[in-house]
Amino acid sequence: MMNPIDTIAQQFAAHNYKLTSQREAIVKVLLDNEKDHLSVEEVYMLVKGSFPQLGLATVYRTLELLCELHIVEKMNFGDGVSRYDLRSEGHDHMHHHMICQSCGKVAEIKEDWLEELEKRLEKEYGFAVTDHRLDFKGNYRICKGSGCKREKDGQAIS
């Protein structure tokens, strides 16, 4: 199995782009922080250690290019901040998320629960699904997030 950087380099090459050292550093930050769904600013701060001369605009342009190449997905979990999530290798669709409205914790669901629905859409409506994304918003029964939003607002956590 090919390592993720090599796979992404091939995806760049297939679209006549080069995976420069700066772009590779951005991809590595995304790979190393995959579960964190980083914002542009967070990626920038993490890459700046390796590339102090790197500008925020370069990080933004690289993330947009990664979106165009379907390597990452731009997401918004309701906090007004665009975040970037790597697409899983070997999966046709984005994975799904559970978003706690109390603490903001985002958990991933890797299984594709919508396969049957896609087949039904194709059969009943002649609609071939090429991609989908599903976000579940709610609250964990016991919110274990440190720095919970409710805690900050002075409200008790239910």
Automatic annotation (TrEMBL):
Its cofactor is Zn(2+); Mn(2+); Fe(2+). The keyword Iron applies. It comes from the Bacteria. The keyword Transcription applies. GO terms for biological process: negative regulation of DNA-templated transcription; regulation of secondary metabolite biosynthetic process. Fe cation binds at residues 91, 115, 132. SUPFAM superfamilies: Winged helix' DNA-binding domain. Zn(2+) binds at residues 100, 103, 143. Belongs to the Fur family. PANTHER family: FERRIC UPTAKE REGULATION PROTEIN (PTHR33202:SF7), ZINC UPTAKE REGULATION PROTEIN (PTHR33202). This is Transcriptional repressor. It comes from Paenibacillus apii.
